[in-house]
Design a protein that fits this description.
It contains three helices and seven strands. It has helices at residues 3-22, 126-137, 139-158, and strands at 24-28, 43-48, 59-64, 67-79, 82-88, 104-113, 116-119. A hairpin with a 2-residue loop joins strand 6 (104-113) and strand 7 (116-119).
């Protein structure tokens, strides 16, 4: 078995076990797909949640290949005995491939940034929606904003 796949499996198993025993887990983020709500370096608080309990607007964490992904639920589908969930990053132009509810690790309840705690709300404020729409149209702008944020965070930490 590939070492990367094995490490990802161990990480996922450890996260699932921590959620099962403790009910919550904190994960540091490094992507830009959930801008402007979640920035690189933020810590998300993940609460244990069954995939069947999530609804449109919730931010969920699931595993995609060898990494965890935190994206917003945009649709739930149920057909006969089959259920699936469609997610999408707020700053991404297209939705993710559908996932099964059992693939969901948990639901994001809050975001920790610079010593402050923010609610992982079901919907963005008007200004945040406008920024997310702009970022969806320009991934270059989203990446640039994320890089500037990381640099500013490093400067703040060093001073």
């Amino acid at each position: 078995m590939d070492a990367t796949v094995n490490a990802a499996n161990v990480k996922c198993d450890l996260a699932r076990e921590t959620l099962r025993t403790c009910g919550s887990l904190r994960l540091k983020t490094n992507g830009w797909s959930m801008l402007p709500l979640i920035w690189p370096g933020d810590v998300i608080v993940l609460e244990s949640s069954q995939g069947s309990q999530v609804m449109a607007g919730d931010i969920v964490v699931f595993r995609h290949e060898s990494r965890f992904v935190a994206h917003r639920v945009i649709e739930r589908h149920s057909k006969a005995a089959t259920e699936w969930v469609v997610t999408q990053g707020d700053a991404l132009a297209t939705p993710d491939a559908p996932i099964r509810p059992h693939q969901i690790l948990g639901k994001v309840s809050s975001v920790l940034r610079n010593g402050r705690c923010y609610d992982a709300k079901h919907s963005l404020r008007r200004s945040e929606r406008g920024l997310a729409t702009f970022l969806r149209r320009s991934q270059r702008a989203a990446r640039a904003m994320a890089r500037v944020h990381v640099v500013l965070h490093k400067i703040r930490k060093s001073s």
